[in-house]
Amino acid sequence: MDLDNLNTFLAVAETRSFSLAAERLHLTQPAVSKRVAALEGDLGQRLFDRIGRQVSLTEAGRVLLPQARRILADLDDARRTLENLSHQVAGPLWLATSHHVGLHRLPPILKTFTRHWPDVDLHIRFMESEEACRAVAHGDVDLAVVTLPVEPEAHLEIRTVWADPLVPVVASDHPLVVQARPDLNAHDAILPPAGTFTRGLIDTALAEHGIRPRHILETPYLETIRMLVSIGLGWSLLPETLLDASIQALPLPGLRPVRRLGSVVHHERTLSNAAGAMLAMLPGPG
Questions:
Q1: Among 49, 147, 151, 206, which residue carries the largest CB count within 10 Å?
Q2: Residues of the chain with pLDDT under 70
Q3: What's the mean pLDDT when you consider all of the chain?
Q4: Which CATH superfamily, name and number, covers 163-260?
Q5: In the beta sheet, which residues pair with residue 264?
C-alpha cells in the first residue's frame, strides 16, 4: 500500500472534497483523483461515492479511515523518534493557532523561534480553537496554541500559557455607559458563536449573573466584534488586551470570566525536537 495514496485518501476523507484535498497536499486535483483510484485498485474496494459535487465515504472508506489515521500516526511517531536521536532541531513543524492568539500573542515568539531555529520548516494553520484541538487529536498538526477547552478530551494534554480576562464593553456613546447599574438584558449582545470554547465560558458567566441578552449577533472573530461594538450595535465581553479608545469597559463587578490560552498536544504522540523547542519557548502562566 502506497503511503502517499493513503495520505491522499485521508485528506479527501477529512475535507470531503477532492479540490480541497489537492490544496492541502499542494497537488493538482487530477493527481489526487489518480492517487485515490490507485488505492481503490490496490484494495479492490470503492472508497468514495461521488454524487454531483458531494463526496462521501463508502462503507469500505469508513472502515479504512481510522486505520489510515493510525497507520500514518504510527509512522509519524517512528519518524520523530528516530529524528530525535540526532538531537537536531530541524524539519517540519505543523502549528495550529487561532486568529486572535496568532495576532496578539504569538508574533514575538515566532520571531524568536525562527531566528533561533532556522532549519525548522514551520507551517502555520489558522483555524478556530475547537478545530485546532481536533487537528491535534487526529495528528494533522504537531501542536496548537489556542483558547483552551474547559474540559479537554482525555488524550489531549493542555498547558495554560496566558490568562485572558474578558470584560464587558460598549461603545463610548452607548446608552449603557450612563447607567449606574448597566442592564445588559435590555440591549443586544455581540458574541462568539455558540459551541465555541469562549462562548461557553461567556454563557456560564452571564447565567451566573442572571443575564439573558434580548438578541445575540454572532461572529467568530474578536476583532470584528470589537468593531461592531465600537459603532454601537451592541455590547460584548472582550479580552482586556483588545481595549482601545473605540470602546469602553462597563463597571460590572464580578462579570469578568477568564479564558485560558495555551498549548495543546497529544499525550500519546512523540513530539519532534522542533515541537519541543516551540513548547519550551512559550512563557509560563501569566
A1: 147
A2: 83-86, 285-286
A3: 92
A4: Periplasmic binding protein-like II (3.40.190.10)
A5: 144, 158
Q: H or E stretch including 121?
A: strand 120-126
> Could you report the per-residue pLDDT of 126-140, keeping only the tens digit for each?
999 999 999 999 888
CATH number of 83-161+261-281: 3.40.190.10
Q: Confirm whether 83-161+261-281 and 163-260 share one CATH topology.
A: yes
Predicted TM-score (pTM) of this structure = 0.74
**Integer Cα distance of 177 and 188 in angstroms:** 14
Q: What is the DSSP letter of 283?
A: P
Is residue 148 within 8 Å of residue 260, measured between CB atoms? yes
Return the number of other C-beta atoms located less than 10 Å from residue 235's C-beta. 23
Report the candidate in 252, 253, 262, 257 with the shortest Cα–Cα distance to residue 238: 257
Q: What's the one-letter identity of residue 120?
A: V
Which helix (H) or strand (E) segment is 72 a member of?
helix 59-84
Please tell me the distance from the alpha carbon of residue 207 to that of residue 40, in angstroms, as a whole number.
52
> What's phi and psi for 147, nearest 5 deg?
-70, 130
Q: Which of 274, 280, 13, 278 is nearest to 138 (CA)?
A: 13
Domain boundaries, the chain: 3-76, 83-161+261-281, 163-260
